[in-house]
């Protein structure tokens, strides 16, 4: 399922609190590459239901993406609870995206942009014991 922060906030928070891998597409409505990427990204979200796919429009959520270099769009973020596996621009190519999403053997040494924390912030069950 492709989650939108404004429409699926509770679902996003629940999945991230459970520790699901975050797959975030950072795009803009004015970006032609992002149009193509959204189609690919949405189909990947259907194929990988065990991951939390979030579509972030950088114009709608500038505070959420303030720490990310957005000179080239679209940008893909793949993040486990503790590690960023990928953060960078991507072409809207399904095969490349799948390889990045499925990767379990690498982490990137990059500045933590705080997107995962921003999405889970205020989660009503975040203070409950597991």
Q: Judging by the overall fold, what is the CATH architecture?
A: 3-Layer(aba) Sandwich
What is the overall number of helices? 4
- Estimated radius of gyration: 14 Å
Average pLDDT figure: 83
Task: Tell me the CATH topology.
Answer: Glutaredoxin
Order of SSEs, N→C? Answer: EHEHEEEHH
Overall 3D shape: globular
Give a quick rundown of the structure:
It is built from four helices and five strands, in the order βαβαβββαα. With 130 residues, the protein is α/β, with parallel strands linked by helices. This is Thioredoxin.
Describe the structure.
There is one protein chain. Helices cover 31% and strands 19% of the residues. The chain has 130 residues and is of the alpha/beta class. It has four helices and five strands; from the N terminus they run E-H-E-H-E-E-E-H-H. It has helices spanning 9-17, 32-47, 94-102, 115-120, and strands at residues 2-3, 22-27, 52-57, 75-79, 84-89. Mean pLDDT is 83; it is low at 122-130. The chain has a single domain, classed as Glutaredoxin (3-Layer(aba) Sandwich). A five-stranded mixed sheet has the order 1-3-2-4-5. The longest helix is centred in the first third of the chain and has 16 residues, at 32-47. The relative contact order is 0.22. The chain is globular and about 35 Å long. Residues 9-80 form the Thioredoxin domain. It comes from Limnobaculum xujianqingii. InterPro entries: Thioredoxin-like_sf (IPR036249), Thioredoxin_domain (IPR013766).
SSE layout and pairing:
Layout: E1 2-3, H1 9-17, E2 22-27, H2 32-47, E3 52-57, E4 75-79, E5 84-89, H3 94-102, H4 115-120
Parallel strand pairs: 1-3, 2-3
Antiparallel strand pairs: 2-4, 4-5
